């Protein structure tokens, strides 16, 4: 199950687990769409993997399967 990290690893923008607006790689490195597209050009700066749109978790399932609360922030 995806962690659904709560923030962009570059700019620390909040990324809600039930909304679109995040991109991830296969290792779940997570970025906002702006950083993913305009800064990293759809290539993960951590692993060189492709950054793709992160699926949102339906609100009805968030209570049982909440997104992660652990914020990840790296100097890029």
Radius of gyration: 12 Å
CATH C-level class = Alpha Beta
- Kindly report the CATH topology: Herpes Virus-1
Q: How much is the average pLDDT?
A: 95
CATH architecture: 2-Layer Sandwich
Q: What shape does the CA trace take?
A: globular
| First-last Cα distance | 26 Å
Domain count, please report it.
Answer: 1
The proportion of strand residues reads 5-15%
What's the main sheet like?
3 strands, antiparallel
Largest beta sheet: what is the strand line-up? 2-1-3
In helices, the fraction of residues equals 10-25%
Number of strands: 3
Look at the helices and sheets and give the structural class: little secondary structure
Low-pLDDT parts are: none
- The secondary-structure element order is EEHEH
Total helical segments: 2
